[in-house]
TrEMBL record:
GO terms for biological process: cellular response to lipid. This is Olfactory receptor. It comes from the Eukaryota. The keyword Ribosomal protein does not apply. Belongs to the G-protein coupled receptor 1 family. One of its GO terms (molecular function) is olfactory receptor activity. GO terms for cellular component: plasma membrane. SUPFAM superfamilies: Family A G protein-coupled receptor-like. It comes from Callithrix jacchus (White-tufted-ear marmoset).
Length: 349
């Protein structure tokens, strides 16, 4: 009898705690996980607190997205169609432009749709697919920037051995290594996130499926995946930035050791483009990660979301402008391609 009463009391407390969400799903064990319902979709709210500015944000994002698509397409086409540009630096730049377009295309159209029409629903699978590709593209980009820095180091510090060191087989190996490293780094995070129980609210306080915004909706402790994201990105980006910085220190030493002023200016101009692009990637990216970790008590939520949104689109928009304007050989090929294209268009009309 007493045993039955005790069991009934435990059952009542158990149900009460579930109702109040004061018991962790992990503590409740398999029985609770079995009854949990995974949401069929999430609701992306856009930028919390800036709903009145959504239309202007949509116009700005659309403009930047169009510029990014046109500029990066021009770079890819110009490099692809001109055999004189089939050098390691331009090949890496071509891949970088393609990755930029892919990352921007994975988030910007949906964001513009949210800001314009209010269609904020995204399916569970589509949300985690979007998150995976955003993180994967970011990991690939930091690897490409490292490869481009190595290319400039060899070109300036070891010019006589450039073609021997950066053979096509070496470039292919570097590209494959960059892709494999990104997949290995991102897959565990995606697995941890997709296996978290989501039994409460499905409203994501963000304009795309950003990792920390999704983790806050989990009914279990999201700290393991959040720590993995913070530590993993810090190690990857930190090591890449350290190697890039070391390579540019050696590059600058070699440049200032040149006797010709023209050679110095040419080398500095090329390196300046790379350093500008790297600043566009690393500074907003790491700021976005650490600002999100600080939370709303330090940085307002709308500032966090806006910074994360701009980080995904601004580099893709400005990269073609920086490389197109600052790299003479590429600039000449782009103008030649555009002139050839418009001449044919005029003849056709």
């Amino acid at each position: 009898m007493y045993q039955q009463i005790l069991q009934d009391c435990i059952l009542v407390v158990h149900r009460y705690c579930i109702k109040r969400k004061e018991v962790s799903p992990v503590m409740l064990g398999p029985a609770y996980n079995h009854t949990m319902e995974t949401p069929a979709s999430f609701i992306l709210v856009g930028i919390p607190g800036l709903q009145s500015s959504h239309l202007w944000l949509a116009i700005s994002l659309s403009t930047m997205y169009i510029i990014a698509l046109l500029g990066n397409t021009l770079i890819v086409t110009a490099i692809w169609m001109n055999s004189t540009l089939h050098e390691p630096m331009y090949c890496f730049l071509c891949v970088l432009a393609a990755v930029d377009m892919g990352m921007a295309s994975s988030v910007v159209p949906k964001m513009v749709n949210i800001f314009c029409s209010g269609d904020s629903s995204i399916s569970f699978n589509a949300c985690f697919t979007q998150m995976f590709f955003v993180h994967l593209a970011t990991a690939i980009e930091t690897g490409l920037l490292l490869a481009m820095a190595f290319d400039r180091y060899v070109a300036i510090c070891k010019p006589l051995h450039y073609k021997r060191i950066l053979r096509p087989q070496v470039m292919l190996g570097m590209s494959v290594t960059i892709a494999i490293r990104a997949i290995i780094a991102i897959t565990p995070l995606s697995w941890m996130m997709s296996n978290l129980p989501f039994c409460g609210s499905n409203v994501v306080l963000h304009s795309y499926c950003e990792h920390l915004a999704l983790a806050r909706l989990a009914c279990a402790d999201p700290m393991p995946s959040s720590l993995y994201s913070l530590i993993g990105s810090s190690i990857m980006v930190g090591s890449d930035v350290a190697i890039i910085a070391a390579s540019y220190i050696l590059i600058l030493r070699a440049v200032f050791g040149l006797s010709s002023k023209n050679a110095q200016l040419k080398a500095l101009s090329t390196c300046g483009s790379h350093m500008g692009v790297m600043a566009l990637y690393y500074l907003p990216g790491m700021a976005s990660i650490y600002v999100a970790w600080l939370g709303q008590d330090v940085v307002p939520l709308h500032t966090q979301v806006l910074l994360a949104d701009l980080y995904l689109i601004i580099p893709a928009t400005l990269n073609p402008i920086i490389y197109g304007m600052r790299t003479k050989q590429l600039r000449e090929r782009i103008w030649s391609f555009l002139k050839h294209f418009f001449d044919h268009s005029n003849l056709g009309s």
